Here is the input.
Amino acid sequence: MQTQAIGSINWFRYASPQSFYPLAGAMIPWFAWAAAVLCAAGLYVGFFVAPTDHQQGESYRIIFIHVPAAWMSMFIYVVMAFWAGVGLVFNTRLSHMMATALAPTGALFTFVALWTGSLWGKPTWGTWWVWDARLTSELILLFLYFGFMALQAAIDEPRRADRAGAVLALVGVVNVPIIYYSVKWWNTLHQGASVSLTSAPTMATTMLTGMLLMALAAWMYSIAAALHRVRSIILERERGADWLAQGGVRP
Amino acid sequence: MNWGSLADFLAMGGYALYVWGSYAVTAGLIAVEVVMLIIRRHHALKTAGIPTTGDTP
Here is the structure.
């Protein structure tokens, strides 16, 4: 009896789609508003506080989307692979659903990173695209997201689609450190990291502030979008289940 | 303040195509994703037989 006090909150309760559905619904507005506020603050700092770069002029302002998008593209993939792995090991439906829900948002940020990189490359390097290690591995990341979504869409039986997608996601995760360290391992046209955990950032404080605000906004947006999508997936997958059929769900 | 006028701001020091091309496409894609999320949710609610009146996101 006494030992029950510690850990009496059953976190696994939220591992069921039925319990997670309303929880996710309650969280979405908070994350969405946080994303909007952080994005507004980030754009303000990025355009009106951060000074003109003495080398790149105003073109550097692409950084406020490019770097956060590139970070998110890698991070979402790792989280997606994590949930895919949890789903494979524990055979939990919700984990697979989370992985599936993350993929389109991850693909979006990967495309944005490539697109903005291209538009930044033209004025600074003189070319829209170059097959260097950083750009190529980021393009492979986009194809991994597309492959994951296409594979899942191609398999009719949801449980098999989950497992096949999960294997692909886990195999592909090897690409993420390749992207991250590509600028160190190879001699790339792409510059090295401006911000890292081990050294002081090599950019002005206001520039860094704007970039971090935009990165936080991208985080909040990604969480809100993934939660929103996972709720739709729960409805799609669980339709006919008792808890849905008995009207236990508010829209 | 970096900009003397609105025209100054829009010109982005001659990099308007690159800077605004980046921001516009990003904003557009996010708008598309949000619309797709809402459409998918309406569809999912309908097929699950849940009425969509008074829908909250």
